Amino acid sequence: MPKTQPFRFIAYFAVLPICCGSFLAAIYNFVLIPYSANSDFDYYNVLFIVFWILAGAAALCVILALFGISWRIRAKIKYVFEFFFFVFLSAACFFALVTLLINPSTLFLGKKFPSKRKHLSEQTQPMVINNISILDIDNRTVLKNARVLIDEGKIQEIESAQDIIVPSETKVFDGEGKMLLPGLIDTHVYLGLSGKMEGLYRSFFVESLEQSMERNARLTIESGVTTVREMPGYFDSSFVLKEAIEQGRVTGPKMVVSGRAITQRGGYFGWPFGHLTKDTNGVRVAIDYNLKQGAGFIVTPTPNSTLSRSGERDMSEDLMEAAIKYAESKEVDITAHVMWPDGVDKAAEKGIKGLEHMPSVMRPLKKNSVDKILREGIYVVPTIAMYTNLNRIVSDPEIIESDEYRKRFGPSVKIAQAYAQEYNGFITSENVGAQEEIKVLDKAISKYFKPNFSKLVKAGVTMGVGTGAGDQLMPHGWISKELQKYVEYGMSPIDALVAATYTNAFILKKENEIGRIRTGFKADLLIVEGDPTVNIKDIENVEMVFKDGVLVYEK
Description:
The protein has 555 residues and is of the alpha/beta class. It has helices at 6-36, 46-66, 71-102, 104-107, 109-112, 209-222, 237-246, 280-293, 317-329, 341-350, 367-376, 384-395, 403-409, 413-428, 432-459, 479-488, 493-507, and strands at 127-136, 141-151, 154-160, 171-174, 178-182, 184-189, 225-230, 254-257, 261-264, 274-277, 298-301, 334-337, 354-356, 379-381, 525-529, 542-547, 550-554.
């Protein structure tokens, strides 16, 4: 038997593979991802390539090890064996490092959120708000000098001050000069993202996922949003955040979570944001998985769901249809990410329930498309401010250096700044495709968004409010910007507020629980200074936010 060489063994099979694997992970994160983002190369699949290298090297190690029965034979091939074993360990180190960075939810995310409660999750004493103006969503009016009694997490009485007897040991708030509104609802957010979906694990070198999720949830609740519809995030991390918020360990809004999107390899919502399906059975398995985790709705892209308009490379029409039909059989809503009118038409024909980023599509909407949406009862969520904010940053990336952006992105502002410069570089880039995408977006915002919006409003299409916060450099806690766009595009302030409350509750199938100030409804409320029914910008003046009767934010 050959003599052992412990130092050589440790160096060759421990230190060197770790160094090599770490070096490859750094190259992947800091070179491959940023500089291949503008090409057609799908860098997500690098991990799949490494996985197959890992499996291949392991198989060869096993095969070569079988020859170890005879040391004479082993001596002849030991360098080959050691080489493959070294490749195996290096690849394993690379794969483990990247997986640890990108998949904290299944490994340690739940442990890193605070273990102690930050606030109560249930109301412990009655509460009265006096001398407050109340937004009556049903009648689109404002009730002056009212008194509201809240107990057990619900609205118990809404009357004039003299008509409500205040129970003993009641906490009293004076609302003079202020307005009480239903808690706002944002139906398109990414609490796990802080700037861009494709940022992936680069951002985790700046701050951990749980840090950014905790900040994003806090910014959201501070803006008066008490419920969100969470779009696909990193693996199952959104479910973990939802649990932490429900337990009072993290301050944030109630969450209705989609889970990972139903997509295909190389398509939009790639790994780790989507289930990469290849057939109908894969679609069913993916949807069943999401529902088992607690998903409240399903998300899928359509063909031509990116600026590059890549057809069925973005999503197969057959797989999209399979997802829609299976979601329907499971009695769960399914909504589609769209960007071009033909994707809208295809999704509507297959029976989609909702359309995200609609009517913020890159071409004018035709009348037959609007009629089809109305006839099928499909709801839409525009995310106008996300695109207009992105377009402004593309033109002037320096604005992301402002204190407002720094506050909202936190440490991840470094990543946002890098992407802002990258987007700005597209304008003068030699990459014709990148230049064309920027021109398409600019033209759509200046010529198509407002007319498309007006067509849908005039037709009476169900239109919710979603910010797209977390993606495309859209900060969290900016629902006010989206509402201001609605008013700029011709909607009245009170109708914009109805869209962000009652209509969004209707989209979530919770219109009999939240979204209005009515007796028996959950006490998800916000108090603002001023009157947003007159000046929509007053919605930014949030003084207090209540969730289930618990004060979760006070200015």
